[in-house]
Amino acid sequence: MPAVSISIDGPTASGKTTLATRLAEELGLAFLDTGVTYRSLAYALDHVPIERLRTDLGSLLVHQPEIHRRHGKKGICQNHAILFRGEDITQEIWHASLDANLKSIAQDQACRREILRLHQNIVEKYDGIVAVGRDVAVTLLPHASLHVYLTASETMRRERRRAQYRTHKDRSTSVGPATERDLQNRDAIRAMPNALEVDSTYSPASAVFAAALHGLRRHSS
Ligand SMILES: Nc1ncnc2c1ncn2[C@@H]1O[C@H](COP(=O)(O)OP(=O)(O)OP(=O)(O)O)[C@@H](O)[C@H]1O
Ligand SMILES: Nc1ccn([C@H]2C[C@H](O)[C@@H](COP(=O)(O)O)O2)c(=O)n1
């Protein structure tokens, strides 16, 4: 288990990635977006049958997470990269046409187990990590220093996603209500002693960051 680890969960476009990258930059941690792996498998599903993804994931996919190292006032950031059979698919995984595949992958328990194994190997490699995604608090980082559950109203999340992708016409802007899985994860996180729930609907990203940092200090002392 790394020295400092933070899990961040919450529904689509609640601001998980924004918070996680800021925390990683400020604290000099690695950053793992588990949703990126799910999106990569959705891409892969157009090329190989799901049975192969369940058994050969480790040899098909390389997920290189971002590393953030604080350097004076400027963080040094090495962007994440996703390789599928050696080909860089980092940009392709966001395409809206992958939405149906994404659902199939997220519902496949054998795939979820393989993805978890892949993420566990990544976590082992780093001395500190911020990991983002549905269920990371429960499955990947149950002993994290802090578990953040981030919410925002559906209307606000939809507005943010549309604004974010205004110049990316091929990207998915589908934002729905919190799913059953989102609500189960939220309840599991609420029951954890070192959890922090933040509603970002009317809070700017800087206020969400300050709340998370405060939570980390409180639970680490
Ligand atoms: N607190 C905030 N206030 C206003 N805008 C925000 C806030 N947090 C994030 N945003 C903006 O909302 C958009 C979505 O944020 P982000 O990508 O971090 O969400 P996410 O939860 O990681 O999404 P996904 O579930 O797809 O991974 C971005 O354009 C980001 O700049
Ligand atoms: N740990 C995870 C991460 C992601 N998913 C699913 C949920 C979404 O449909 C998709 C993409 O995630 P996002 O980029 O929106 O965070 O992958 C999951 O089931 N478990």
TrEMBL record:
Its EC number is 2.7.4.25. The keyword Protease does not apply. Residues 159-185 are annotated as: Disordered. GO terms for molecular function: kinase activity. It comes from the Bacteria. Gene3D superfamilies: P-loop containing nucleotide triphosphate hydrolases (3.40.50.300). Residues 6-188 form the Cytidylate kinase domain. Residues 159-169 have a biased composition (Basic residues). It holds the Pfam family Cytidylate_kin. InterPro entries: Cytidylate_kinase_dom (IPR011994), P-loop_NTPase (IPR027417). It catalyses: dCMP + ATP = dCDP + ADP; CMP + ATP = CDP + ADP. Keywords: ATP-binding, Kinase, Nucleotide-binding, Transferase. This is (d)CMP kinase.
